[in-house]
């Protein structure tokens, strides 16, 4: 059957089913899979097996497992009901609000029975997309079919309702309408949009004295870059009631302030001091299950988060530090429980403190919250210079971070791994939502209500709203999280869950509003989108199917990459300019030749190619003579340093014939992009901990938090472009990446990012920087950090190899599929 593009929103409801009941109240499975038959046949030969128990566990016999139903757009899973006890007529009555960006022939409703290992397929029902694409509501009893799409002999059927709304007709999404002064925020989310907030945006953990962005804002103001870790230090120091910290990693030995004019105090010392002063200090730190004190990883664990060291440091003090495993919620299979506990993390990075004491000496009722990509741990402190060697004897003497080279240490010398990241500070009503997130997590995995400071939230929040419209921000907090990590989700009430954007999956509740926020922002975009992210992969359902991998089993199903390419296509078809800029690291952190890094690069390449092929087809259909990179372009960041007099001289050297030694001799290395940010039209910004991959966007994998924000007084009009702090922040970032001279030359172009002149200038500068970076003969300082990502793009949108391996490594630029690592780990 012909495929139709479903780009918009599907509002679906699975009401009930009429299923065949065998004797004893059991349900007959529609399929005994080949794998299960082989396993059963092999084990059956063992005389001690109980055949009936084995058949039941593997789903080969009539089943009494709990029933659930799923919604798929062709083979992409987009919805799932809770589980019900087996019955002839299960009554789910469950609604779904589905953001779709899929070419598909059917919407498929599948009925399954849960098993201890996996699930048993009872049958599938098929609704052709041609029946729904016109936008008319559909309500049907659909026949449930077997694997050959033949109706089951018992006449099984499922009762569904569905209505598709095209993206151009979705009033809530307001396609290409921008934000607008009356924008109500992303609908169907746990936290609503809050008005009257303050926001401060940070590029990197620290701002160097010599970095002064030259950005003019509305009303003659000049953008001011602020220092993140100094602000965090001051906020904690001023707290009088509470300091709540949630982190993927928290290192007690890190110094937030590294200014010789100020006293240097470690984070651990600061927190213990606050606890001695009577401040309630609570910490939720991810419990890396590999840090068990045994084997080669010892206390650091695979991810070197130092979680056991952090817990030990605070033991017996007034600081209450809880190590939180990424526990699964109830209702998952044994395999899913093992996956969640061992593969996924608590990835949120938040600090929430009270405002301390005001200027008049009275208690300040304000809350101050920080969130974003920067963990309070080693390796994160950096400036816009992103040095490789020059600070090894000073600023980074005790903070050398280089996990890409086995055995790297400051004793063996640089390059260190420079760190680029983005964070934010939120005050006002939205700060209370960041607090509620912490309290929900503490109640679930901390110590219930114990130790949480009782606050009069309504009274305090009302006093915090900003009255001056010029300073006011509208802010909305988003999360990826489930009921296994946070208390307070509606249970047993699917309608209440759906109203707050929560998804009832089997017997657990999931929030994935970060993905919804990205989708809404992309759909509303008018002119351009700028993304910085540690990972960029997804929409695997749209990857090429003739490219050596079975994409149906990848399950990197979030729609963000496809939404971006569809946005560009719509603009090309309308004859309008639009540009998407994406900055990613050269490779994911780790040994670049390793299987996990190569697998992620492979997924990234497939994602990029899917998008470029979409764009190329639109260019061809329009009859344009254009390069796909005129609309979509990918960058990475890097640095190269000449030797300077008096530079730190390491007492040891790296092992011969290693990436480490080659990078040291070439005096170059990537700047690691750890940011998780998107800017739309210089009006709206998303900042958080979530990567653009399935782990972060799923809700049931890594836990995440983000915020979306804009200034209502500084939105674009017909006569005036947006010139508020979001614009200032974006231009400051580009000045950092381009370098002083290139930024000055591009000063006018960067004010209009959607223009072809701007895109081509950025591409030219980035290519020039890459050529200098890769040139072994060039031994000077790199004049800027922005570099073209080292792949080519054909006019047909195929990714082509321009350099086989990253400089100084044996690692393939295009990556390689792993036959060992499960896709769920690397997507």
From TrEMBL:
<dbReference type="InterPro" id="IPR035892">
    <property type="entry name" value="C2_domain_sf"/>
</dbReference>
<dbReference type="GO" id="GO:0046470">
    <property type="term" value="P:phosphatidylcholine metabolic process"/>
</dbReference>
<protein>
    <recommendedName>
        <fullName>Phospholipase D</fullName>
        <ecNumber>3.1.4.4</ecNumber>
    </recommendedName>
</protein>
<comment type="function">
    <text>Hydrolyzes glycerol-phospholipids at the terminal phosphodiesteric bond. Plays an important role in various cellular processes.</text>
</comment>
<dbReference type="GO" id="GO:0009395">
    <property type="term" value="P:phospholipid catabolic process"/>
</dbReference>
<keyword id="KW-0378">Hydrolase</keyword>
<dbReference type="GO" id="GO:0004630">
    <property type="term" value="F:phospholipase D activity"/>
</dbReference>
<dbReference type="Pfam" id="PF12357">
    <property type="entry name" value="PLD_C"/>
</dbReference>
<dbReference type="InterPro" id="IPR000008">
    <property type="entry name" value="C2_dom"/>
</dbReference>
<dbReference type="InterPro" id="IPR024632">
    <property type="entry name" value="PLipase_D_C"/>
</dbReference>
<dbReference type="GO" id="GO:0005886">
    <property type="term" value="C:plasma membrane"/>
</dbReference>
<comment type="similarity">
    <text>Belongs to the phospholipase D family. C2-PLD subfamily.</text>
</comment>
<keyword id="KW-0106">Calcium</keyword>
<dbReference type="Pfam" id="PF00168">
    <property type="entry name" value="C2"/>
</dbReference>
<keyword id="KW-0677">Repeat</keyword>
<dbReference type="Pfam" id="PF00614">
    <property type="entry name" value="PLDc"/>
</dbReference>
<feature type="domain" description="PLD phosphodiesterase">
    <location>
        <begin position="669"/>
        <end position="696"/>
    </location>
</feature>
<dbReference type="InterPro" id="IPR015679">
    <property type="entry name" value="PLipase_D_fam"/>
</dbReference>
<keyword id="KW-0442">Lipid degradation</keyword>
<keyword id="KW-0443">Lipid metabolism</keyword>
<feature type="domain" description="PLD phosphodiesterase">
    <location>
        <begin position="342"/>
        <end position="380"/>
    </location>
</feature>
<keyword id="KW-0479">Metal-binding</keyword>
<dbReference type="InterPro" id="IPR001736">
    <property type="entry name" value="PLipase_D/transphosphatidylase"/>
</dbReference>
<dbReference type="InterPro" id="IPR011402">
    <property type="entry name" value="PLipase_D_pln"/>
</dbReference>
<dbReference type="GO" id="GO:0005509">
    <property type="term" value="F:calcium ion binding"/>
</dbReference>
<feature type="domain" description="C2">
    <location>
        <begin position="28"/>
        <end position="142"/>
    </location>
</feature>
């Amino acid at each position: 059957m012909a495929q139709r593009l479903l780009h918009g929103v599907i509002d679906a409801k699975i009401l009930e089913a009429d299923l065949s009941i065998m004797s004893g109240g059991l349900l007959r499975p529609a399929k005994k899979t080949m794998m299960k038959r082989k396993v059963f046949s092999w084990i059956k030969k063992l005389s001690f097996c109980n055949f009936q128990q084995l058949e039941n566990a593997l789903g080969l016999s009539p089943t009494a497992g709990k029933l659930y139903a799923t919604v798929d757009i062709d083979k992409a899973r987009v919805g799932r009901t809770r589980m019900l006890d087996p019955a002839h007529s299960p009554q789910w009555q469950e609604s779904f609000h589905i953001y779709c960006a899929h070419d598909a022939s059917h919407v498929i409703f599948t009925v399954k029975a849960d098993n201890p290992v996996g699930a048993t397929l009872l049958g599938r029902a098929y609704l052709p997309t041609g029946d729904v694409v016109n936008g008319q509501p559909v309500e049907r009893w659909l026949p449930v079919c077997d694997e050959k799409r033949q109706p089951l002999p018992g006449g099984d059927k499922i009762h569904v309702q569905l209505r598709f709304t095209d993206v151009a007709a979705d009033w809530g999404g307001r396609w290409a309408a921008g934000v607008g002064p009356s924008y109500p925020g992303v609908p169907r989310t746990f936290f609503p949009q809050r008005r009257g907030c303050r926001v401060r945006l940070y590029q990197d953990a620290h701002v160097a004295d010599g970095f002064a962005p030259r950005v003019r804002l509305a009303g003659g103001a000049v953008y001011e870059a602020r220092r993140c870790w100094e602000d965090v230090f001051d906020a904690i120091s001023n707290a009088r009631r509470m300091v709540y910290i949630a982190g993927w990693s928290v290192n007690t030995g890190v110094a937030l302030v590294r200014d010789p004019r100020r006293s240097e105090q470690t984070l651990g010392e600061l927190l213990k001091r606050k606890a001695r002063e009577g401040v309630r200090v609570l910490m939720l730190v991810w419990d890396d299950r590999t840090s068990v004190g045994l084997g080669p990883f010892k206390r650091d664990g695979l991810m070197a988060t130092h979680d056991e060291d952090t817990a030990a440091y605070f033991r017996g003090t007034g600081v209450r530090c809880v190590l939180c495993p990424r526990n699964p919620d109830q209702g998952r299979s044994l395999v899913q429980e093992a996956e969640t506990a061992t593969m996924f993390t608590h990835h949120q990075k938040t600090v929430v403190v009270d405002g301390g004491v005001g200027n008049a000496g009275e208690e300040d009722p304000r809350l101050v919250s920080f969130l974003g990509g920067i963990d309070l741990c080693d390796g994160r402190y950096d400036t816009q210079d992103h040095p490789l060697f020059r600070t090894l004897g000073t600023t980074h003497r005790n903070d050398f971070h280089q996990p890409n080279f086995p055995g790297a240490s400051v004793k063996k010398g640089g390059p260190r791994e420079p760190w680029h990241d983005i964070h934010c500070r939120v005050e006002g009503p939205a700060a209370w939502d960041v607090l509620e997130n912490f309290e929900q997590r503490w109640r679930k995995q901390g110590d219930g209500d114990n130790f949480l400071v009782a606050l009069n939230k309504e009274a305090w929040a009302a006093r915090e709203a900003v009255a001056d419209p010029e300073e006011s921000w509208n802010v909305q907090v988003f999360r990826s999280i489930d009921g296994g990590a946070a208390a307070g989700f509606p249970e047993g009430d699917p309608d209440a869950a759906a109203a707050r954007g929560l998804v009832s999956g089997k017997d657990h509740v999931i929030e994935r509003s970060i993905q919804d926020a990205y989708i809404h922002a992309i759909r509303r975009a008018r002119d351009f989108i700028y993304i910085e992210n540690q990972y960029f992969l997804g929409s695997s359902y749209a990857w090429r199917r003739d490219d050596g991998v079975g994409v149906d089993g990848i399950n990197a199903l979030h729609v963000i990459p496809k939404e971006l390419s569809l946005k560009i296509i719509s603009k090309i078809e309308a004859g309008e300019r639009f540009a998407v800029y994406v900055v990613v690291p050269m490779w994911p952190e780790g040994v670049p030749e390793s299987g996990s890094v190569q697998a992620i690069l492979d997924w990234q390449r497939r994602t990029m190619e899917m998008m470029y092929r979409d764009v190329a087809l639109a260019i061809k259909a329009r009859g344009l003579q254009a390069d796909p990179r005129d609309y979509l372009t990918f960058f990475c960041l890097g640095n190269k340093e000449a030797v300077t007099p008096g530079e730190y001289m390491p007492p040891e050297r790296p092992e011969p014939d290693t990436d480490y030694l080659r990078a040291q001799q070439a005096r170059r290395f990537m700047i690691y992009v750890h940011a998780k940010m998107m800017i739309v039209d210089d009006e709206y910004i998303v900042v958080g901990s979530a990567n653009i991959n399935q782990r972060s966007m799923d809700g049931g994998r890594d836990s995440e938090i983000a915020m979306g924000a804009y200034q209502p007084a500084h939105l674009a009009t017909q006569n005036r472009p947006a010139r508020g702090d979001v614009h200032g922040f974006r231009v400051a970032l580009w000045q950092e990446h381009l370098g002083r001279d290139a930024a000055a030359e591009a000063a006018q172009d960067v004010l209009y990012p959607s223009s072809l002149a701007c895109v081509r200038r950025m591409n030219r500068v980035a290519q020039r920087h890459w050529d200098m970076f890769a040139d072994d003969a060039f031994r000077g300082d790199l004049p800027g950090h922005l570099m073209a990502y080292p792949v080519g793009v054909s006019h047909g949108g195929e990714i082509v190899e321009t350099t086989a391996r990253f400089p100084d490594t044996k690692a393939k630029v295009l990556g390689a599929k792993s036959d060992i690592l499960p896709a769920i780990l690397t997507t």
